[in-house]
Amino acid sequence: MSSAPAFKPFNLALIQLGQVGTDKDENLRHAREMISRAVTGGSDAHPRPDLVVLPECFNSLYGHLHFPVYAETIGFTPDKPYDIASSESQTVKMLSAAAKEEGVWLLGGSIPERDAGTGKLYNTATVYSPQGELVATHRKVHLFDIDIPGKIKFKASHLFESETLSAGNTLNYFDTGKWHEFARIGLGICYDVRFPELAMTAARQGSCCQVLIYPSAFNTTTGPLHWELLQRARAVDNQVFFSMCSPARDLKQSYHAWGHSMVVDPMGTVIAEAGDEEAIVFAQIDPKVLQDARAGIPVTTQRRFDVYPDVSKRVL
Ligand SMILES: O=C(O)CCC(=O)C(=O)O
């Protein structure tokens, strides 16, 4: 079991990125520009962010036909230093430089990744320290294959993720250690939010994350139904901060993202939310809200593992 990590107030910025098109260089250029804007765009109401987040699949069009074309080899091994200079990934190099130049923690959304050993493709999130180190990755664990008759069919359509992607098989978090330690942050990607066990394991005794952040890209069918509901549910049932960062909606592309990048506090209150256009959403994360939620509604000490199993028992 991990010891309880530090949790201090910090500022979060979600980039609801627009203009993601066919040109990867242009996608990266625009993302870089928006990272700068997020860092300098604070105000009295929204102080300079400590952590900036990009959405799912931010350097590529979304869909299984695009993943092999845009995929990059990352080659990250947990607990081993990663050499950015010899990375084969153009996107990793850009994100590392951006984090270092801006002096900010960066959860660099997700990108299609090709594993150098197996050749398999993954939907992978990467995280950078303000020194530009690649400190964590998360390969999407649950692939997005759904079929709602008459509404939306990703199964066997050009968007069906498992046509080309493989599922990750590890749970991941990162600590904002060293010179400015503020939280332990659990990772997931989009459809992962539908599986409460993943959030539960990250938030509870396995790792004690206080904040869970999932780069995402819901759509205009399931977005209005479940986007907010799922985030508030994961926040309340684990008494943690929960956030998903979406691309902006672009009706010129075949995939219409829902937008509404959001931050929810441990009581289930939506404390920040975008519309559907390009935007930067700022939120102040206050540990006292988590402490008060857990003190006032002490489900943590009231669970009845003599009646039902503790499914979060696995230690990350
Ligand atoms: O779960 C949903 O409704 C949407 C999931 C999704 O868009 C994704 O995983 O990319």
From TrEMBL:
One of its GO terms (biological process) is oxaloacetate metabolic process. It comes from the Eukaryota. Gene3D superfamilies: Carbon-nitrogen hydrolase. Keywords: Hydrolase. One of its GO terms (cellular component) is mitochondrion. Residues 10-287 form the CN hydrolase domain. GO terms for molecular function: omega-amidase activity. Pfam families: CN_hydrolase. This is Carbon-nitrogen hydrolase. It comes from Dichomitus squalens.
